[in-house]
Amino acid sequence: MSRVLVIGCGGVANVAIRKCCQADDVFTEMCIASRTKSKCDDLAKALEGKTATKITTAQVDADDVEQLKKLITDYQPDLVMNIALPYQDLTIMDACLACGVNYMDTANYEPEDTDDPEWRAIYEKRCKEQGFSAYFDYSWQWAYREKFEKAGLTALLGCGFDPGVTQAYCAYAKKHEFDTIDTIDILDCNGGDHGYPFATNFNPEVNLREVSAPGSYMENGKWVEIPAMSIKREYNFEDVGQKDMYLLHHEEIESLAQNIPEVKRIRFFMTFGQSYLTHMRCLENVGMLSTTPVMFEGHEIVPIKFLKALLPDPASLGPRTHGKTNIGCIFTGKKDGKEKTYYIYNVCDHQECYREVESQAISYTTGVPAMCGAMMLLTGKWNKPGVYTVEEFDPDPFLDALDRYGLPRRENHNPVLVD
Ligand code: NDP
User: Fold this and answer.
1) pLDDT tens digits, residue range 294-303?
2) DSSP secondary structure, 219-281, as one string
3) Exposure pattern of 173-186 as b/e (b: 16+ CB <10 Å)?
4) 51 Cα–ligand 1 center, Å
5) CATH number at 2-157
């Protein structure tokens, strides 16, 4: 019996909303609000007659706190699910605080304009102090901890698959499998093929920024930064096969290092095919990944936004993507004084996702955890005032919900380790 306001109606939101509508006993009323209202109306229409969830739609510019406040005040939701872009995290958190509503998102804050001098000064100080140069980090949202605590509200950060489920896997390993964890390797494999020489599986701007940035990992409490794509490993993924994977910086490393401080090393690897890497390097070399506006025939354009307009819409990849994803965490550590290893992961099939919710598996593996995280907040399983990442909550009911709603866990107590 709850009312949620979903902000954003792109690839991930489409899955999250459809999954919420499958759990219409929890998600009884929902407002879908986004920049382009027609997309919300189309989805609401597609769901007509298929769910008991009462759906309304609205237009909102989530960069504008006043518009958000008005929408939240009018709709009076129990929870705001931010499934727009990381650029809107802070404005939506501000509006939730002002209106006294719980908040959640799927990716940590990063600014749209990385040339903004005020932001840049703080960023450069952080790069020096902490030793990693990604544009995104948790500091901006962790700064809201006290405000949410005082207001008696919960903010759940990064509840997709990675970040999100990967942290629940870590909390689960810590709770059930280990006394102490020594190393964590997060492995994100997409064995899907969409038939295009180059396309991104989620928002191209956010995806290409992440992948073209230097990689980094945490070792003995310190960041080690490396040039982009300079650490490569091969791994044989169950149900996918042998793949090349590359070490990337990833946001959950930052929170896991704080929340499981005994861990000596945390790394994140993602698989990429040669065609993807060749295209990305070429686009980067000619400046197409830049976020700095340039003048073109009298118009100001941002190269990466122009590129986004040319690339296939990730939402359109669903019908043509075949194959599976395999995402999970490999741990080493000790239980009852003995060394042990453990792997927990999920395998998801692109075509099965498409048949169920008309989406490929990348949006599916993000949208389902967003819905399950919302369910944890709405059913009171994960409520504590403050700002938290997924590993700070009890993983059991969340993993049970994932098992039930389409992302069942698999386990291996003798996995091949990554060197
Ligand atoms: P899309 O680009 O497909 O969708 C973004 C949606 O947000 C669109 O509906 C867009 O509206 C809307 N939007 C953008 N700006 C605004 C604004 N100012 N006001 C209102 N609405 C706005 O992105 P995805 O669905 O692929 O990704 C959604 C989120 O999920 C991102 O934050 C991404 O980083 C995150 N993600 C997380 C993953 C994880 O595992 N944790 C994995 C993959 C993605 P419009 O239609 O007008 O453009």
Assistant:
1) 999 999 999 9
2) ETTEEEEE-TT--EEEEEETTTEEEEEEE---HHHHHHHHHSTT-SEEEEEEE--HHHHHHHH
3) bbeebbeebbbbbb
4) 24
5) 3.40.50.720
Pocket of ligand 1 (CB under 6 A): 8-13, 34-36, 39, 60-63, 83-86, 88, 106-107, 158, 160-164, 202-203, 206, 314-315, 366
Atom of ligand 1 nearest to the CA of 36: 47
- Checking ipTM against 0.85, whether it exceeds it is yes
Q: What digits encode the pLDDT tens for the residues 72-97?
A: 999 999 999 999 999 999 999 999 99
In this structure, the residue with its CA closest to atom 46 of ligand 1 is 36
Where exactly does CATH 3.30.360.10 map onto the chain?
165-357
CATH 3.40.50.720-classified regions of the chain:
2-157
CATH architecture of the domain 165-357 equals 2-Layer Sandwich (3.30)
Q: Give the distance (Å) from ligand 1 centre to CA of residue 10.
A: 5
